[in-house]
Design goal:
This protein is of the alpha/beta class and 595 residues long. The chain has helices at residues 8-18, 22-28, 58-65, 79-88, 117-123, 193-206, 235-238, 248-273, 310-313, 342-350, 367-372, 435-456, 468-480, 489-492, 523-539, 569-594; strands at residues 34-40, 68-70, 73-74, 127-133, 152-156, 167-170, 173-176, 179-180, 183-184, 218-223, 280-286, 317-320, 331-333, 337-338, 380-386, 406-411, 414-418, 503-507. Strands 9-8-5-4-10-1-11-12-2-13 form a ten-stranded mixed beta sheet, with helices on both faces. A hairpin with a 2-residue loop joins strand 8 and strand 9. Helix 6 (193-206) runs parallel beside helix 8 (248-273) and helix 15 (523-539) crosses helix 16 (569-594). The longest helix has 26 residues, at 248-273. The protein is globular and about 65 Å long. 50% of the residues are buried.
């Protein structure tokens, strides 16, 4: 049987929790754990119960409460870049997927030179299965998930589709998109996708061989469609919210989230019934912030999906395992972490495998920090550099990264944003008609105003410039619980209409809502972070973002979204060019860093 020796920290913690000595485990060998990775789509910060949401997620709450909650965890601002970072362990600037998403019909994908997480685990003896959304390219068959390390795949290749019919409409038309491995599967277009994916997960788990000479550990990747738009869910999941004060849109979204939560609970039950749960590590993550235009919410964080504000990039995540020692269970991890970190954390941390340096990973092995609750090794992260995004205004500093190029970086407590980070509003909870909303938001207003005053070093009465009658009117309405978004424009929106601005600086540790721009107060920090962006930019490869190819239209492919390029010449050329750019830029970037 294929076995590995779990690295010393894991061995010590696991053995203590199981009553085994370290020497026993070393002599007998330790079976590698099953790894279940659940990726929710468009689940926002305020879309889980344990962050104060009225969306009911009891299974997520319970698993996270008895695991490790990650409260300083970051993803990319939209789907494809996050999935690329997870599967590659690299920032999107190093895979060419930093601009928007892969649209159906584009000749784009995760470069074939990248050895995916699934490739790595398969090489280490895992059965590898994927169920759900791929969104990392399909224009050639070589980009399909079953060609990228997965033994099987059930799901779709594009970015969104109908939950029942599996039809996706984009600029090149409407087409069917549902696969069993590398073949279109049209056997069922009536079952709600979350339920269908759960059923497939059950089949994989119950059919997995757990003993005998052919037994292998399981890697099950579950990138669910939920809770991405369109807002669709069986009526039974909406019913518990119909008598609530949630808006109709939010009710549907809540039903979708509840269905997803139920699926997670069912999957853990299947693992338990198969006697696999005790040797399983379950990881949960969202792929980006919530989409406020489709029922999601990131309160009290600024921004939403597609933006570089905290509401777009700070993600819900946790890790749970019966293998955890009692000192790990029920903890909250507040060290900086990025979705790319899962790649080395799983391979180097959980499996104690030394990865070659030529992988050029951006991810950091966080395993010891997660287990011990200690400060992690990551001290900075690059949110993105996107040269194709809009370029407002002019560059404000010379001989460094141009502030009118869209980018964001976090170093220690400080976060710098440049260019156009996206819609800069704070979107309140969407249950507008309830006392709960009025109480929650009105109290947050006043706490926030005091916080702004403290950070700015002003008098506690933030309204010292306000006319006395206006001030008392606000006080009265606060007591009545009827404050509204437009009462506090200076909180809800940073940039006035028509204002051209392209640099912001925040101390995220003391100001996670990004209320106080400190760029004018600390120009030296702005310059330091711009210089760091310039260093990263030297290693970036150009975005692979071509116009959609008409040949990829469903009209030319039997009414479906499927591979339409039948030769490997295109992808081979793309990968050779990208690899050469990465090597060249990495070399010159190191020269500059060494100066």
């Amino acid at each position: 049987m294929w076995r590995i020796l779990i690295f010393s920290v894991l061995t010590a913690l696991v053995c203590q929790s199981k009553g085994h000595s370290v020497s026993q485990t070393e002599s007998e060998g330790a079976s590698p754990p099953n790894i279940v990775f659940i990726l929710a789509d468009d689940l926002g910060w305020n879309d889980v119960s344990y962050h104060g949401s009225r969306v009911k997620t009891p299974n997520i709450d319970s698993l996270s409460k008895t695991g490790v909650r990650l409260e300083n965890y970051y993803v990319q601002q939209v789907c494809t870049p996050s999935r690329a970072a997870l599967m590659s362990g690299r920032y999107p600037i190093h895979t060419g997927l930093q601009h928007e998403v892969i649209y159906a019909g584009q000749r784009s994908g995760l470069p074939l030179s990248v050895k995916t997480l699934a490739n790595q685990l398969k090489e280490r003896g895992y059965d590898t299965h994927g169920v759900g959304k791929w969104h990392l390219g399909f224009f050639e068959e070589s980009y399909l998930p079953t060609k990228r390390g997965f033994d099987s795949w059930t799901g779709y290749m594009t970015g969104n589709e109908d939950y029942y019919t599996h039809v996706n409409c984009e600029s090149l038309g409407c087409g069917y998109d549902f696969y069993a491995n590398s073949t279109l599967d049209m056997s069922d277009n009536t079952t709600y996708s979350t339920l269908r994916y759960t059923r497939r997960a059950k089949d994989i788990i119950m059919g997995h061989q757990t003993d005998g000479p052919q037994s292998k550990p399981l890697f099950l990747y579950l990138p669910f469609q939920a809770v991405h738009s369109p807002l669709q869910v069986p009526e039974e999941y909406i019913e518990p919210y119909k008598r609530s004060s949630l808006s109709p849109q939010r009710q549907k979204f809540a039903g979708m989230a509840s269905c997803l939560d139920e699926a997670i609970g069912n999957i853990t039950s299947y693992l338990k019934s198969k006697n696999m749960w005790e040797n399983t590590i379950l990881i949960f993550s969202t792929d980006n912030g919530g989409e406020t235009n489709a029922g999601g919410n990131n309160w009290p964080l600024r921004g939403k999906k597609w933006t570089l504000w905290e509401g777009g990039v700070r993600g819900v995540s946790f890790i749970h395992s019966p293998l955890f020692n009692s000192t790990t269970v029920g903890t909250t991890h507040r060290s900086l972490m990025h979705i790319s970190d899962w790649y080395p954390t799983i391979l180097e941390g959980i499996l104690s495998h030394t990865l070659p340096s030529n992988l050029s990973l951006d991810g950091v092995n966080m395993w010891s920090s997660l287990l011990a609750g200690s400060e992690g090794p990551r001290t900075e992260l690059l949110h993105t550099i996107d040269p194709l995004a809009s370029h407002p205004g002019v560059a404000l500093y010379n001989d460094t990264f141009p502030t009118n190029t869209t980018a964001a970086i976090r170093v220690g407590d400080w976060k710098l944003l440049t260019g156009y980070p996206g819609v800069d509003k704070i979107f309140p909870p969407v249950n507008y008609y309830s006392d709960y909303f009025n109480y929650q938001v009105s109290n947050w207003h006043w706490k926030t105003l005091n916080k702004i005053a403290r950070i700015k070093g002003e008098e506690a009465n933030y309204f010292h410039l306000m006319h006395e009658n206006e001030y008392h009117d606000l006080q009265d309405r606060h007591m009545q619980g009827v404050l509204y978004e437009n009462d506090f424009p200076e909180i809800y929106q940073l940039t006035a209409s028509g204002e051209v601005k392209n640099v912001w600086l925040f101390n995220i540790t003391e100001d996670p809502e990004e209320l106080i721009d400190r760029s004018d107060d600390f120009p030296e920090i702005v310059k330091q972070l711009l210089d760091r962006l310039a260093e990263y930019n030297l290693t970036a490869i150009p975005p692979n973002f071509p116009s959609p190819d008409p040949a990829g239209s469903p009209a030319n492919n039997g009414g479906a979204w499927k591979p339409w390029v039948n030769t490997g010449v295109v992808s081979t050329l793309i990968n050779h060019v990208n690899s050469a750019i990465v090597r060249t830029k990495s070399f010159f970037g190191q020269l500059i860093l060494w100066e």
